[in-house]
Design a protein that fits this description.
The protein has about 400 residues and is mainly beta. The protein has four helices and 32 strands. The strands form two sheets. The protein has a 21-stranded parallel beta sheet that branches. Strands 4-7-9-11-14-17-20-23-26-29-31 form an eleven-stranded parallel beta sheet. It starts with a helix and ends with a helix.
Amino acid sequence: MPINLIVAVSALALTAPLHAKTLAVAAGDGAQARLQEALILAEPGDVVELGAGRFTLTDGLSLDVNGVTVRGAGMESTVLDFTGQKGAGEGLLVTSDNVTLRDFAVENTRGDGIKSKGADNIVYYRIRVEWTGGPRETNGAYGIYPVESTGVLVDGCKVTGASDAGIYVGQSKDITVRYNMAEYNVAGIEIENSRRALVTGNLVTRNTGGILVFDLPNLPVMNGGETVIEHNLVIANDTPNFAPKGNIVAGVPRGTGVMIMANDTVLVKDNTLVDNSTGQIMVVAYPNAFDDKRYNPFPRRVVIGQNRITGGGTDPALPGGDQLKAAFGGALPAVLWDGLGGKDALALAPRGPVLTLNVPAQGVGMDKANPALVTPADPAELVMPGPVGAPAALEARIAR
């Protein structure tokens, strides 16, 4: 046996549990106690296996053991039903590392659907989170909600009805969000105060805003950036904003396709954007007052590459939207920029194939004292430094 294979096998033997087991939990009477007990008794390497059926739950669940897999029979077959939840917390809270959540659904939580905090190398795979009564302000804020983590993979999930963001990754790094569907949320997918994120192959439709990349002040982790948004379908995000008043996403205009706010080094390329009624792609500064001296409110080094863009801009939910639309001949441009941030804020790729629309960005309310420049640029000039996305080791956990 080659020496490198011997070393790899030996390392696996040292880290793999010797007595990993499966803890099976069936739906039915007493499911709340039996499921929480399994999550407490699980040991590293164990699988908590949820049977097919509807688990009627009245309180949130928690997991704080490393290396556990929670696996159902499928996102339509195994449903954790929190319609009768008594508290206001999340449905499931994970605070341990190397956890895999896969193949089940969470419905109608009073708070967030599934939250993981400080949980490194976490995988969400084929998870459905839904508020079945449609878009409502009283729905939970976040569907899938990893925060303060290194190593996040959200793959093949579906989220519907979140009153803030369907899929939200915050204050984290080394992130992949791929092949998901987000619909009828305020924000479909949001990457906030995070670094090295890859958002690829997702369908975001009928949200208020499709894909948001934000940096906000006064958070423990600051200076988000190094994000790639590619190969996504961003279609008809036209749901009126139903976020509770005071939330930052309450200011997202209905009809936003992709919005980059106050972030650093972001590449938007090879996406298809159709009929987002306010703006297909928007690049903006943070609009509110703040007192955090660490914070930069302006977008920096944002590259809009070649994207397929159809329609949009015909019903802008902006102050003076009708006048703006008339000024631009009946529809706002495909790329909107507020003009703030200096000459390195935004660059556009050269014109591409016929199906690709790359138009000069139009500054709406441009700061005349700081007339930022928009110049054609090759996206290759801003190659993301270092690896972008989740560690490759997370892939093996969903191949089993």
